Amino acid sequence: SPHLHPHCIKDSSWSINVAECLEPPVHSPSFLGDKDRYVAMRSSQWASRSSPSPKYPTGEVPGQLGSPEQRRDRESEMARRHAKEVLRNQHMVTLDERKTNDDVKNVALEEARLRAHQRDFQRSSDLQLVVESRQAFDVGRRS
After folding, report:
1. pLDDT of residue 70
2. Quick one: which of 34, 72, 75, 141 has the fewest CB in 10 Å?
3. Does residue 51 sit within a domain?
4. Which ranges are annotated Low complexity under compositional bias (predicted)?
5. CA-CA-CA-CA dihedral for 104, 106, 111, 112, to nearest 10
6. What's the pTM value of the predicted model, to 2 decimals?
7. Is residue 25 part of a domain?
8. Is residue 108 part of a domain?
9. Judging by beta carbons within 10 Å of its beta carbon (0-12, 13-18, 19+), is residue 18 exposed, middle or buried?
10. Is the pLDDT of residue 112 over 80?
């Protein structure tokens, strides 16, 4: 199978005649200046090889991207999927926010309950102190 010269791979302008880049040279009219047919031929060769394809002059490996129509379809499909994802995420966010608000409310209630409990406990222990000190005072007075 014909191979590309390294300098042809680097040349992105395609100013070099494609046929000159093939060794052995292929001087058939179908290759001369027919970039697309050449690209198709090379990409099918690359696809059949297991090694990674060399850098392509246009920066993309043909055959992986398909025709412009396929590419457009795939892009619109990706855009659709992305939009769906965004919507779902927004929905999740609203659910999360609702949950978070409930959590905040619950935490606030819990803290209020704790404070009330502490207050009651403080009050009862204050009373206990008063009672104990009065008893001690009484005991001291009696003795």
Report:
1. 79
2. 141
3. yes
4. 42-53
5. 110
6. 0.23
7. yes
8. no
9. buried
10. yes
